[in-house]
Specification:
236 residues, MetI-like fold, 9 helices, mainly alpha
């Protein structure tokens, strides 16, 4: 009960909701860096995954590198890039850039692999039927394969989002803000309420993201099934 009461006291203290170190500002910092890094990861990984899924060129290499990237510890990536980014920008190079780079690298593998898998698993008969109807390769990708693969594509972004939101807390070790600041400062100050308050906020944010993407994925699955049923007569 001491743990619960300490956490409740921390949440109900008005001082913890004000200023640059308050919950709203830290939450905004966390969401902002995660949204930016997720967006960058999508811009990099999604086109590559769609291309290799459609053409089957370089699929083994790309998927292999993506899976290898999952094995690289995120904290190690931050530590490796920090000295170089600090040389480029002394003010943000140690605090912000390592977090952004590490989170982008963390988000790329699930997005790329799911994009490849989603396009690769589209019924080839539908693809060949589209070619027979005179569709160009780009039209086949955008008008046939992507709509049918959307649930899998969203699944990759969903997975990347959860990983980034949870792991971005490590940035506080390098001085970055966000919700990880509550964990690091709480441990350093032996403030149980602050530490577990940060844990609750991160968990809540992850669950919210998971719920939003899960709802979107279910709706896209139902739409994809309808689209596949509508396209099936053209392939026969």
């Amino acid at each position: 009960m001491d743990l619960v009461s300490a956490t409740v006291r921390w949440f109900t203290d008005p001082a913890d909701w004000a200023g640059t170190s308050g919950i709203p500002n830290r939450l905004l910092e966390h969401v902002a860096v995660c949204a930016i890094t997720l967006g960058i990861a999508v811009l990099i990984a999604l086109p590559v995954g769609l291309w290799i899924g459609h053409t089957e060129r370089g699929s083994r290499l790309a998927v292999g590198l993506a899976n290898l990237g999952r094995a690289v510890p995120t904290l190690a990536v931050m530590g490796i890039v920090a000295p170089f980014t600090t040389l480029i920008d002394p003010s943000l190079g140690f605090i912000v850039f390592p977090v952004v780079i590490a989170m982008v690298l963390l988000g790329i593998p699930p997005i790329l692999v799911n994009a490849y898998t989603g396009i690769h698993e589209v019924d080839r008969e539908l693809v060949e039927a589209a070619r027979g109807m005179g569709f160009r390769e780009r039209q086949i990708l955008l008008r046939v394969e992507v709509p049918l693969a959307l649930p899998v594509l969203i699944g990759g972004i969903r997975s990347a989002s959860v990983q980034i939101l949870a792991t971005a807390t490590l940035g506080a070790i390098f001085g970055f803000g966000g919700l990880g600041r509550f964990l690091v400062d709480g441990i350093a100050q032996q403030d149980v309420g602050q530490t577990w308050g940060g844990v609750v906020l991160v968990a809540g944010l992850v669950l919210l993201s998971e719920t939003v993407f899960a709802v979107a994925q279910r709706r896209l699955i139902s739409r994809g099934l309808r689209a596949q049923a509508a396209a099936a007569p053209a392939a026969s």
